[in-house]
């Protein structure tokens, strides 16, 4: 993919477990990486074929492959365009060239 198409900055986050001041378990989101991405909405036809019926927005984010982001999975999140996107799946494109991430955000 042409580097000029990676024109959106996204923040990749991973859940981090810990405890609060009272010793109670809490989950926080820690920044895994901030990267440049190509963002493309998933078409209505693809959504229908996939059985996606919830009121949500579905997009594909394409980023450069790196050791740091190669560990992404559906437990992680993306912050983009003022929304939190739940990762639905990832796939490697090429041989350690790019990663395609499918993610969903609730419609407003």
Quick recap of the structure?
With 108 residues, the protein is mainly beta.
Uncertain ranges:
none
% residues in beta strands: over 45%
Distance between the termini: 31 Å
Q: Which structural category fits the helices and strands?
A: mainly beta
Radius of gyration over C-alpha positions, nearest whole angstrom = 15 Å
- Largest sheet: spatial strand order: 1-2-3-6-5-4
Describe the fold and architecture.
The model has no long low-confidence stretch (mean pLDDT 88). The chain has one helix at residues 44-49, and strands at 8-19, 25-41, 56-64, 77-80, 83-93, 98-106. The chain has a six-stranded antiparallel barrel with strand order 1-2-3-6-5-4. By secondary structure, it is mainly β.
Write the layout of secondary structure elements.
Layout: E1 8-19, E2 25-41, H1 44-49, E3 56-64, E4 77-80, E5 83-93, E6 98-106
Antiparallel strand pairs: 1-2, 1-4, 2-3, 3-6, 4-5, 5-6
Characteristics of this structure?
single chain, 108 residues, mainly beta, six-stranded antiparallel β-barrel, 1 helix, 6 strands, 57% strand, globular
């Amino acid at each position: 993919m042409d580097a000029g198409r990676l024109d959106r900055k996204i923040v990749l986050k991973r859940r981090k477990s810990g405890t609060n001041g009272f010793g109670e378990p809490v989950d926080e989101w820690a920044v895994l990486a901030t990267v440049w991405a190509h963002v493309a909405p998933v078409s209505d036809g693809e959504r229908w074929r996939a059985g996606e019926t919830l009121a949500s927005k579905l997009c594909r984010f394409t980023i450069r492959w790196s050791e740091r982001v190669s560990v992404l999975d559906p437990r992680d999140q993306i912050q983009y365009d003022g929304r939190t996107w739940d990762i639905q799946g990832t796939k490697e494109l090429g041989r350690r060239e790019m990663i395609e991430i499918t993610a969903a955000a609730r419609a407003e």
